[in-house]
Amino acid sequence: MNSKPSITVSSLDFERLESLLEKQTGDFPGRDALEAELDRADVLDPKDMPPNVVTMNSTVRFTMLETGKSSTLTLVYPKEMDGSDNKVSVFAPVGIALLGLSVGDELPMPSPTGRVTVRVDAIEYQPENAGELHR
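and the corresponding structure tokens:
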């Protein structure tokens, strides 16, 4: 894949993530990548979010193409990480990669072994599609 797919972020998620980044003291490994993704995002009102887009608190099934490994995780804010293995922080490389992608999109991302490509296979739950517009 030569270019990144377009991404869409709800205005609520966008504002919360921008605020979180402003409050973060110091750097964390994915800060620049998350800021770059937010800078290139199309921002929509939560009620206008397409149901096939990964938003915050969405449960998404995805595959790492190089390994064929599929996972299902919920994309959460860092404070919601509780040690369970079914969540991924939006500050983690895979969380940054998933944010705003649509079903079928593929995006290369850094990994400890180099670069891997993540593909969104399905959105199993999306708050906006469930009518939870102000969670």
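(Above: one complete record from the training split.) The chain has three helices and seven strands.
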